[in-house]
Amino acid sequence: MMLEETKKATYTIPVGPIHPALKEPIRLALTVDGEEIVDVDIFVGHVHRGIEWLGMNRNNPIQSIYVSERICGICNICHPFAFVMAVEHATGITPPPRAEYIRTIIAEMERIHSHLLWAGVAAHEIGFDTIFYLTWRVREEIMDLIEYVTGNRVTKAMFQIGGVRRDITEEQFPRIRQSLDYYKSLFDQLKRVFLDDKTIQMRTKNVGILKKEDALKLLTVGPSGRASGVPKDVRQNQPYAAYADLDIKVTTPDILTGTVVGDVYDRIIVRLLEVKQAIEIIEQCLEKMPPGPILAQPKTALLLKTLTKAEGEGIGRAEAPRGEVVHYVRLEAGQSTLATWKVRAPTYVNLMSAPTILKGMQIADVPIAFASLDPCLSCTNRIVVTDRATGQKSVTDYEELHRLSVEKTRKLQR
Questions:
Q1: 21-52 burial, b if ≥16 CB within 10 A, otherwise e?
Q2: pTM of the model
Q3: CATH number, domain containing residue 337
Q4: Which of 170, 203, 299, 369 could form a disulfide with 208 if both were Cys (CB 3.0 to 4.6 A apart)?
Q5: In this predicted structure, what is the pLDDT of residue 8?
Q6: What's the domain range around 66?
Q7: Over 90: is that where the pLDDT of 324 sits?
Q8: How far apart are CA 167 and CA 165, in angstroms?
């Protein structure tokens, strides 16, 4: 008796928008054949706070700085950093050299805390909570240092258009160096725990592979792109603040292993190496810190007068912990508020590579493979259309979004 050949059947498994493996609301529709993922659809739009609209309706661009700081709770330095650079570009304001160094120091502190936070989350995603607790305990030191330097652990309110609001004095240098020495003494332990452990290697090597050609095609940025061998880092490719004065080299996994696979393991390598690099950058800034003022215009009333008279558009680009973040602003003479403000966070482009890294993986690999992109949905979600009369929501597809983008671009050009 001959058995009939069994036909393959695929099923769609929804993951999210609320799921233990997801730290923010997003929905993944996984088409599976048995345990293997054969297709992936991503649905965003569950978090939309109207940040850009709020910023454009503040009384002046200075108030919008604090709105930009709240785009993301983790990346609350890179967003105001890019925002003030965009306004400075539009108005021709040049921050003093000392302010540029202080900005760089704070940005690298953010990079250390963000990468350590991600490392703990990554350990949790594979069920290795011992390392999760270890990493977050280690992270507390940089959080304490951030509070010591800025006055707060989360929203720091350090940035001002034309400089920074607080100085980093030489009396604070010893405390900063103490924290840097702490991380240097622990780096080999962290490297051993994350890279030499057999459990982590089995769960991350050859998992979630993103080849260099795919990373380039999908415009992947930040550690996710560099882990695939894409040597792109705004700090080196288009230096801003104090980065042009420092020794900055793009971090790729072959620095440590001699090869580039583009898997989750390589993304761990890049982020660990960037923690070490951030320590070295802060040390260089402390050594080279120039004297002088920290604001181009210390009088807020005069700064507001300059901003009201300004007319033009500007772009600010910064290398956030997750990758390149871009802020665009437009100012109109006689108008105290922002005429236009648009934000493009790194997750906006990095999400495009999620289907590529998930296809061919097992269902059990989804949490760590997706988390390896370090997605931030609060930074990313931008558009939800609601009919006020009926309350019904509609989804804006690619063609409609493209049409609206072209229409708005032509309107701005006019």
A1: ebebbbbbebebeeeebeebebebbebeeebb
A2: 0.89
A3: 1.10.645.10
A4: 369
A5: 63
A6: 51-380
A7: yes
A8: 7
